[in-house]
Amino acid sequence: MPQRSRAPREPARLTPSPALSRLALSRMADAAVEAVDCIQALHQAGSNLVLEALRGAEFAEWEHYPPDDVIDPISHAQYYFHAHAPDDRERPDYGHFHTFMRPMGMPAGVRPAGLAGGPPPAPAEEGALSHLVAVSMTPSGMPERLFTTNRWVTAETWYSAADVVAMLDGFVIDVDQPSRLLNRWLSATFVLFRPQIERLLIARDRVVEDWRLRHFDGDVFEDRGLQITSSIDISLSRQIEWVNSELESRG
Predict the structure, then answer these.
(1) CA 142 to CA 78: how far, in whole Å?
(2) Cβ atoms within 10 A of the Cβ of 240, count?
(3) How far is 134 from 234, CA to CA, in rounded Å?
(4) Environment class of 113 (CB within 10 Å of its CB; exposed 0-12, middle 13-18, buried 19+)
(5) Assuming Cys at both sites, which of 39, 100, 210, 212 could form a disulfide with 129, CB separation 3.0 to 4.6 Å?
(6) pTM value?
(7) CA–CA separation, 165 and 236 (whole Å)
(8) What is d(CA 68, CA 59) in angstroms, rounded to the nearest whole number?
(9) C-beta contacts of 121-124 below 8 A and 24+ residues apart
(10) In this predicted model, what pLDDT tens digit does every residue of 16-65 receive, in sequence order?
């Protein structure tokens, strides 16, 4: 297995940012309530977020849960849960959700990014998914980390960070399968941790470009030495504390 370079982790805590409006913070606070409500409802039913993704299936490495992924027919958001083999994990990781946006859900005018040495980008076809962010989970079913990946990891079509950020508002999973509570939680997570997700996507492009300049003899997007392009540890309780503190400080 090729030696991998680990992308630097972003600081786990946000610092106060005037770029976050009170409206954005209020939406994050509402999303926090939604996320906590979903987790508590599952715990009261003897379940958790990971168990809801598995829905009684035997957990096998590399398999998608659910098998055909979850696709919202209105928003065209998509996700699945899976886990890597232990010797293919850059960090201890019980499993993670990979999230995507399909072309029909992308903002108008978004086009795949031109890859080094490749043909000019063309308008996206329906199979040209964009990977948004991955959410790493603990064995007890709690989110612990967000991360982005190189193109080859999910066989996505590459879009610039700015275009992927523009897709984030559209990530809504409003279907019953495999679990309405799981889907509500994941949709809320995109709002609650929006600042971190944006930061990770910007860092992703920076890391990929730096890698390309240092490994100019190959295709950076297919380089198995670069798997995780950015990551950040997260805590639901600390994020909620931060959002509430920011709202209080702004009156």
Answers:
(1) 20
(2) 18
(3) 12
(4) buried
(5) 100
(6) 0.90
(7) 21
(8) 15
(9) 124/157
(10) 455 799 999 999 999 999 999 999 999 999 999 999 999 877 777 878 99
Percent of the chain whose predicted confidence (pLDDT) is above 90: 73
What confidence tens digit (pLDDT) does each residue in 62-75 have?
789 999 999 999 99
Q: What is the pLDDT of residue 7?
A: 54
The tens digit of pLDDT for each residue in 186-196 reads 999 999 999 99
Whether 41 and 30 have beta carbons less than 8 Å apart is answered as no
Q: Is 199 left (phi over 0), alpha (psi -120 to 50) or beta?
A: alpha
196-250: per-residue pLDDT in tens?
999 999 999 999 999 999 998 889 999 999 999 999 999 999 999 999 999 998 8
Kindly report the three-state secondary structure assignment for every residue of the chain: CCCCCCCCEECCCCCCCCCCCHHHHHHHHHHHHHHHHHHHHHHHCCCCHHHHHHCCCCCCCCCCEEEEEEECCCCCEEEEEECCCHHHCCCCCCEEEEEEECHHHCCCCCCCCCCCCCCCCCCCCCCCCEEEEEEEECCCCCEEEEEEECHHHHCCCCCCHHHHHHHHHHCCCCCCCCCHHHHHHHHHHHHHCHHHHHHHHHHHHHHHHHHHHHCCCCCHHHCCCCCEEEEEECCHHHHHHHHHHHHHHCC
